[in-house]
Design a protein that fits this description.
The chain is mostly beta strands. It has five domains: 195 residues; 100 residues, no CATH class; 106 residues, Immunoglobulins (Immunoglobulin-like, Sandwich); 218 residues, Metal-dependent hydrolases (TIM Barrel), CATH 3.20.20.140; 44 residues, no CATH class. Helices cover 12% and strands 38% of the residues. The strands form eleven sheets. It has a 17-stranded mixed sheet that branches. A hairpin with a 4-residue loop joins strand 6 and strand 7. The longest helix has 21 residues.
Length: 821
């Protein structure tokens, strides 16, 4: 390679691979590349018996050179430590004497752990002035062995020494010819494997940090592929190229759409010496190569199909503080920083890309969340780390009651502090509405508290559960809420409960448990263990929860759609949960309401990865008057139906002055006045009033007198001729950029209306539908689900006839449904 020339040491070699001991087979021999530099170890025949110089005691070896060189790179190794366990640090092993033209001799002492070291090396005892023969690198990006899965999360690995330590001598007189190099042993056994001369004006090993580069594929067909680029650097290292978010759908505080991301533009970090070659590939196809020195000198280099552009304006270590603009107090939130090119600079301790933007199911990665192609760090109101000099784009968000902040700030040389301010647009808790997420997995309690503070989410229900052989959050259960102080008064509470699951009958969320309700899951994958049996039913789980004073929620209503109908018909379901807006969800919910069941509605995320923020769908529950906020009070408000779910919009519904969960009693048929309002930090499409499942009033940005598309209001008189229910719902114009792609949406629980007597609805079609579901689920229990033999089993319920015990709630539900006809 230009600038580097190996010296032929074969005439001086006096030792073979047997001198290495066990790792002999791993020693590179012949013409090899070490850290991208050319070396000649032994002769051209790697099988030759003599391939190393191993000087004998008190017998110097003189190697003729006869060339000019600015540097000499030596591949060598100490054959055994000078003292036990490597405690011979600093012991002189040899002198290397460089004889220059004119008679000058430059002698350098070669010392253990300085210029030379043993191979293999004890962990933590690398050489101080030499580098390993292998560079640092990246873990496999998309696949690998199972036993490497944990290491894969580190993304990178250290270049451990394989056979030789590489040491560089810098010639103080590069204009003078090096006539010869003399190896003078001083006692400990060592070998020299290779010498390479450098005429390049560079240090041969990377001694500078990675610098960000922007990668742009100029071939439009290649750029549009939903693929990733890769980079190979022969004399340095490069991080995985990451796609840069586009500006087509870039939302302040709520992510940048770019999925699946195109190959270009992208960015990477490169640390290399000037002569290094960067090879860019896509799907194993070479797109071209550039020289790193050209990129650093000119700021860019082009291959014809790809452009590599330096995007490094310098950087400062900056301490950032985020304040509530009204109070001046430090406020928890989530933050994202990036350069104008789109390169992220997240706070230290946080990820630029959560799990490389791959599926991160079950990985708790410590207070980060990804929305689209933007990763946010949860902070307590302060953070620190590198920010690029010049313009920096800042994104800050905190739930639905603060306006997201998008601001471009300027970081000047020497700047070490940055203060940002968030504006609260409404305070729902001050009006009696307290937010919570019904359904969260995999976070620790401390992680949940960090994230709920950052999302201004008052309650997190962190749920234990089981996925086959995986049991999660077992160690988190305490049977009581865990609180952390809030900025605006009151606690932010995390309570560890359960999601108990059966794949055909249904899932249920259990809040407020004082002791576990086991088994968590039943009847085989992908909930329970392989080969599992139906050991219990949802109704038993509900009964044991209620016996503790807990709350039962039909999870992600209605699916799995078997036993939820039993829970509703027998009064075991305290609420139903909606995780995403969909016509099927609404149709099912309205059918149950029309059948005469008062069902509070709650919202939650079912968060199982870092691609979902806690509280992106949340429950607002209304406490009475001056009632003190607590977890029990919040659950009681949910059970009373004083709720609305929100995926962004904040609703207010009044029916003749009454709110969700209340009953309006009319003496007979008549008219009620419905007032609905919605405010949102996201643009709105419609506000609707729903009566008995039918839309009876609509407001849009074009039809209301309210200004803009973030606030709508509607007043509607509605004729009531019998028992009824009324709710409000609102739709945004966007879908969120979480991994579910949830609609910006909100829906209240109903206000119930009784006309001329007690409230009661009994839609025949709905009741028939429920009865059919109950019968079908009972048939599953009778004929499909595996059961343990009674004579071989003592069941947890203690009864001898397990099938009769399993069927009992289904029979109870059928009798209750028949009584409503």
């Amino acid at each position: 390679m230009a600038g580097y020339e190996p010296v032929d040491l074969h005439p001086y070699c006096n030792a073979g691979v047997d001198v290495l001991g066990d790792p002999a087979d791993d020693a590179p021999l012949g013409r090899v590349q070490l850290r991208g530099l050319p070396f000649q170890v032994g002769g051209d025949d790697p099988a030759a018996q003599r391939c190393f110089i191993a000087p004998q005691p008190q017998t110097p070896v003189s190697i003729a050179v006869g060339q000019q060189a600015s540097r000499v790179i030596v591949a060598h190794r100490l054959l055994e430590p000078t003292r036990p366990a490597g405690h011979g640090v600093g012991t002189q092993v040899a002198d290397y004497a460089f004889h220059l033209a004119g008679g000058e001799v430059v002698t350098v002492p070669i010392r253990e752990r300085f210029e030379i070291q043993v191979v293999p090396t004890e962990w933590g005892r690398d050489a101080f002035l030499a580098v390993s023969d292998t560079p640092d690198g990246n873990e496999p990006r998309f696949e690998g062995r199972w036993d490497g899965a944990g290491y894969r999360l580190t993304e990178h690995h250290k270049g451990w020494v394989k056979a030789y330590w590489l040491w560089c001598w810098e010639n103080p007189h590069p204009e003078k010819t090096i006539e010869r190099i003399e190896l003078i042993p001083r006692g400990p056994a060592f070998l020299v494997a290779a010498l390479t001369l450098s005429q390049a004006d560079e240090h041969p090993f990377v001694n500078g940090p990675a610098r960000p580069v922007r990668l742009e594929v100029t071939d439009p067909d290649l750029a549009a592929r939903d693929d990733v680029l890769s980079i190979e650097v022969d004399r340095g290292v490069a991080t995985y190229p990451q796609p840069l978010p586009t500006t087509v759908d870039d939302r302040p505080g709520y992510g940048a759409a770019n999925a699946p991301p195109p190959a270009s533009p992208a960015y990477a970090g490169v640390a290399a010496i000037p002569s290094a070659t960067l090879v860019l590939r896509q799907r194993d196809e070479d797109l071209g190569q550039v020289t790193w020195g050209d990129v650093e000198r000119d700021g860019h280099a082009d291959t014809g199909r790809v452009r590599v552009e330096l995007a490094d304006s310098g950087r400062n270590w900056v301490h950032v503080t985020v304040l509530d603009d009204a109070t001046g107090k430090q406020v928890p939130c989530r933050v994202h920083f990036r350069s104008p090119e789109g390169i992220p600079y997240q706070p230290h301790g946080h990820h630029n890309h959560v799990a490389q933007n791959l599926n991160s199911w079950h990985y708790d990665v410590g207070g980060d969340v990804r929305m689209g192609q933007s990763t946010y760090a949860y902070i307590d109101g302060k953070c620190q780390g590198w920010l690029p000099r010049g313009e920096v784009v800042v994104d800050v968000a905190r739930g639905f009651e603060y306006a997201p902040l998008r601001e471009t700030v300027r970081i000047e040389p020497g700047q070490r502090e940055l203060t940002l301010r968030l504006n609260r647009v409404t305070d729902m808790a001050a009006n009696g509405w307290w937010s919570g997420d019904s359904h969260v997995h995999f976070l620790s309690t401390a992680g949940a508290q960090l994230e709920q503070l950052g999302e201004d989410l008052r309650v997190v229900n962190l749920l234990q559960s089981q996925w086959g052989a995986l049991f999660t959050s077992t160690e988190e259960f305490t049977g009581r809420p865990s609180g952390v102080g809030g900025v605006h008064g009151g606690d932010y509470l995390t309570y560890v409960g359960q999601e108990n699951r059966q794949h055909a009958l249904g899932h249920m969320v259990l809040w407020g448990l004082k002791e576990p309700v086991m088994p968590w899951c039943s009847d085989g994958p992908d909930e329970a263990e392989l080969g599992g049996a139906l050991d219990t039913n949802l109704s038993d789980w509900a009964d044991r929860t209620h016996a503790q004073g807990g709350t039962v929620v039909a999870a992600h209503f209605p699916n799995p759609n078997g036993e939820p109908a039993v829970l509703v018909a027998t009064g075991r379901a305290d609420a139903v949960e909606m995780l995403a807006q969909g016509e099927d969800n609404l149709r099912e919910y309205y059918r149950y309401l029309n059948s005469g069941y008062r069902l509070p509605l709650v919202g939650g995320t079912d968060k199982m990865s870092s691609a979902v923020p806690v509280g992106l769908y949340r429950t607002y529950a209304r406490l009475d008057g001056n009632q003190e906020f607590s977890y029990d009070a919040w659950c009681a408000a949910v059970r009373a139906g004083r709720t609305f779910l929100s995926g962004g919009p904040l609703l207010d519904l009044r029916v003749d002055g009454r709110q969700p969960g209340d009953m309006v009693e009319l003496s007979g048929p008549g008219t009620v006045t419905v007032e609905a309002q919605v405010t949102s930090i996201f643009p709105l499409r419609t506000l609707e009033i729903v009566c008995n499942g039918e839309v009876v009033g609509t407001a849009t940005p074009d039809s209301t007198g309210d200004s803009g598309d973030r606030r709508l209001s509607l007043t509607q008189d509605v004729r009531i001729d019998g028992s009824a229910w009324i709710a409000a719902r609102a739709f945004g114009t966007q879908t969120h950029l979480d991994e579910w792609g949830r609609q910006v949406f909100a829906h209240t629980s109903p206000v119930y209306l009784a006309s001329g007597g007690p409230w009661g609805m009994a839609d025949p079609e709905g009741l028939h539908y429920m009865r059919t579901l109950v019968e079908g689920a009972r048939e599953y229990v009778r004929h499909t689900a595996p059961r343990r033999a009674d004579h071989l089993t003592t069941h947890h319920h203690g009864e001898a006839d397990h099938l009769a015990w399993l069927q009992r709630p289904f029979d109870e539900a059928l009798r209750a449904l028949d009584a409503r006809r």
